[in-house]
Specification:
Chain A: It catalyses: [DNA-directed RNA polymerase] + ATP = phospho-[DNA-directed RNA polymerase] + ADP + H(+); L-threonyl-[protein] + ATP = O-phospho-L-threonyl-[protein] + ADP + H(+); L-seryl-[protein] + ATP = O-phospho-L-seryl-[protein] + ADP + H(+). The complex is a heterodimer. By secondary structure, chain A is of the alpha+beta class. Chain A is built from ten helices and eleven strands. Chain A has two domains: 86 residues, Phosphorylase Kinase, domain 1, CATH 3.30.200; 204 residues, Transferase(Phosphotransferase), domain 1, CATH 1.10.510. In chain A, the strands form three sheets. Chain A has a six-stranded mixed sheet. Chain B is globular. Classes of the chains: A alpha+beta, B mainly alpha.
């Protein structure tokens, strides 16, 4: 990955001169994302413009983490490639950072929506391939000591032609390997949030990502979110209704978590009632991804070895 | 250095880091040969700050309220920065700005709860605008190489711990700010 400037302040070609913006394809907290053409090569890229005009804050921590983490992880085929970081100025003369990514033409959210709109099911082998790629990408992140913490269909980019899946948006990701102050509670879109996070755990692990992967797995099969809560409490209740209300027996230590209360008591239902289109091996893998006790939840590496993937041609993945 | 959280460890570490950085800065000040090739960067003050490195680092420690690990990580960043920017060695004119910037960036990267640039600028006695410039230059100077693996973290801790136990002048050829190459090969 190139870096456009050194600590000595060497100026080079600005982002404005280097790229031609073609269209706006998205907008985040800190700026816009454009499809753009690199003038020198004609290559199509995604240009993520980060405003630094929030003078009090400086470089947003999401940008700082995303660039740093992608600098390590971008060599994996299932993690979006950060090609360059450029510094520029906007019309008011304020500093702007441009993150230059490889361009992907869709994401898993749009992909699922397209099947929902046509009333078709996503072919089981397609689901299997996408899930394997997701597990492979997450295993790579976890192997490098990185938690994603915001896995959801919208953050999984895809190439429609090749059906290649890539993990993106590592703005909430963090290294989990060095002792730090308590982690924030305010991570991850509610629907994909692990129960330990919802219950206020302040030290959590790779298992939070695996829970999200499980939720995405079910959504690929049913084309609907597995647990679609609109508040933290509702989210927990959705989970409890399907998997049963946890207790000390199934999840030692659960009642000691900061936000644990007395909840309505539900017995666990069979996962096949919620994900009817999934075969037995798929249900077995899903159940291991949705284990209540984080330490019992399957790892991404182990998930890749699950029998569910046995009949998948992994050569090109 | 799992005992970072214990109350008497951090003051010792701050004191030791200060004396180490002071010696590095003074050594580079004296190295006239190096001065010829030095670039003046945004970190370079027009005059030497009157506040000592130790008082400055103690002030940062008092007000930053970041994880104790951030000070080790900030030290790793300074090491990486000097390796990547050999024409910008740590000296008495830039050490304070490099310190406040490295701790702020470490806190931002490591902690989910941290103070913003304006706060660090106040702590460091500079303007917010300058703090923002320093941050961007520091990040590009590091090539955004912010992640610290457990192996690297432990290696730096172990080295600092052994030096603190000895509490004797370091041989600069072996000092931590030039140890990075071997550590990088082993852990990064």
């Amino acid at each position: 990955m190139e870096m456009e400037k050194t600590g000595a302040g060497v100026a080079v070609l600005s982002a404005k001169e280097a790229f031609e913006k073609l269209e706006k394809v998205g907008e985040g907290t800190y700026g816009k994302v454009y499809r753009a053409r690199e003038k020198a090569t004609g290559k199509i890229v995604a240009l993520k413009k980060t405003r630094l005009h929030e003078d009090q804050e400086g470089v947003p921590p999401t940008t700082l983490r995303e660039v740093s983490i992608l600098r390590m992880l971008s060599r994996d085929p299932h993690v979006v490639r950060l090609m360059d970081v450029k510094q520029g100025q906007n019309k008011e003369g304020k500093t702007v950072l441009y993150l230059v990514f490889e361009y992907m033409d869709t994401d898993l959210k749009k992909f699922i929506r397209s099947f929902r709109q046509t009333g078709q099911s996503i072919p089981p082998q397609t689901i299997k391939s996408l899930m394997y790629q997701l597990c492979k990408g997450i295993a790579f992140c976890h192997g490098h000591g990185i938690l994603h913490r915001d896995l959801k269909p919208h953050n999984l980019l895809m190439d429609r032609k090749t059906m290649m899946l890539k993990i993106a948006d590592l703005g909430l990701a963090r290294a989990f390997t060095v002792p730090i102050k308590k982690y924030t509670h305010e991570i991850l879109t509610l629907w994909y949030r692990a129960p330990e996070v919802l219950l206020g755990a302040t030290h959590y692990s790779m298992a939070v990502d695996i829970w999200s992967v499980g939720c995405i797995f079910a959504e690929l099969v049913t084309k609907q979110a597995l647990f679609a809560g609109d508040s933290e409490l509702q989210q927990l209740l959705h989970i409890f209704r399907l998997l049963g209300t946890p207790n000390e027996e199934v999840w030692p230590g659960v009642s000691k978590l900061k936000d644990w209360h007395e909840y309505p008591q539900w017995n666990p239902k069979s996962l096949s009632t919620a994900v009817p289109g999934l075969d037995e091996l798929g249900l077995d893998l899903l159940s291991q991804m949705l284990e209540y006790e984080p330490s019992k939840r399957i790892s991404a590496k182990k998930a890749m070895e699950h029998a569910y993937f046995n009949d998948l041609d992994k050569g090109h993945l | 250095m799992a005992e970072l959280e214990s109350p008497n460890v951090m003051p010792k570490l701050i004191s030791f880091l200060s004396s180490l950085l002071k010696r590095v800065a003074e050594s580079n000040d004296l190295n006239q040969q190096q001065l010829i090739h030095q670039k003046v960067s945004v970190f370079h003050g027009l005059t030497r700050p009157t506040i000592s490195i130790q008082s400055y680092l103690e002030r940062i420690f008092k007000y930053a309220n970041c994880s104790p690990s951030c000070f080790i990580v900030a030290y790793v960043y300074l090491d990486r920065f000097t390796q990547r920017q050999p024409s910008l060695p740590i000296n008495s004119f830039n050490v304070h700005r490099l310190l406040i910037t490295s701790v702020m960036v470490a806190a931002k990267f490591m902690d989910d709860l941290y103070y913003n640039n304006a706060y660090y600028a106040k702590v460091g006695g500079i303007t917010t605008i300058e703090m923002n410039f320093l941050e961007v230059d520091f990040l590009f100077g590091l090539g955004f190489h912010l992640n610290v693996t457990p192996g690297t973290f432990q290696a730096y801790c172990a080295h600092l711990q052994s030096e603190m136990l000895l509490m004797q002048p370091l041989n600069f050829a072996d000092s931590f700010l030039s140890l990075g190459k071997s550590l990088n090969k082993a852990h990064l």
